[in-house]
Amino acid sequence: MVVCPIHQLQQRSSQIYEQASSQNVCVFTYSHLSVLVTYAIRTSAKQGERLLNTVLKTIASMNPSKDAVAYWTMLNRAMLGFASEIDRLWADEKQAATESVAAVKEEALTYLASERERIMRMSHEEALLALVKVHRIESRIKVIKAVADSGIFGIR
Fold first, then answer.
1. According to the per-residue pLDDT averaged within each range, which of 37-41, 61-65, 68-72, 129-133 is highest?
2. For residues 121 and 154, which has the higher predicted lDDT (pLDDT)?
3. Structural domain boundaries of the chain?
4. Distance CA 15, CA 46 (A)
5. Average pLDDT for residues 129-147, to the nearest whole number?
């Protein structure tokens, strides 16, 4: 199982889904994991294991495809069809995920706005130095200067 943030996954098509389903690897979001763990806490560890087993069997039964919608439809239906108690947990997690994505977007936009402001306040000289640093010109020069004949042809 690979677990990752929901906003970092492709929504339409990706080879990750094809590779996961062909190799029996479950791609899960933190939100899906949260539903699974919360369900196990509210019912029992045994029920949580059964839900996990259902999810893993669903992944194993999938036809390999790059189609994200097909992947998530099967996985979501497996979870939601497991027990009626999951519906409420699902709704709560869906709301939390929506709020989380909005917060992440807002934080990123705020950071980028402050970076733009900082750059616009730079003098011409500061901007040039920053550009050289961003492109790692000096460290790339050092690497190139360090390249030397390995001496392999000198070995007899």
1. 37-41
2. 121
3. 2-120
4. 33
5. 91
Predicted pLDDT at 25: 94
HEC profile of 62-131: CCCCCEHHHHHHHHHHHHHCCCCCHHHHHHHHHHHHHHHHHHHHHHHHHHHHHHHHHHHCCCHHHHHHHH
What type of residue is 25?
V
How distant is the alpha carbon of residue 67 from its chain centre?
A: 17
Asked if residue 27 lies in contact with residue 4, where contact means CB atoms within 8 angstroms, the answer is yes
Span 3-13, average pLDDT: 84
Q: What is the pLDDT of residue 7?
A: 77
**pTM exceeds cut of 0.85:** no
C-alpha distances out from residue 84 to 1, 42, 81, 88, 89, Å: 24, 13, 7, 8, 10
Name the residue with tokens 């560890």: 45
Residue type, 87: D
Residues 6+ apart with CB under 8 A from 63: 21
Neighbouring C-beta atoms of residue 52, cutoff 10 Å: 20
Q: Are strands 2-4 and 27-29 parallel, antiparallel or unpaired?
A: parallel
- CB atoms closer than 10 angstroms to residue 67: 16
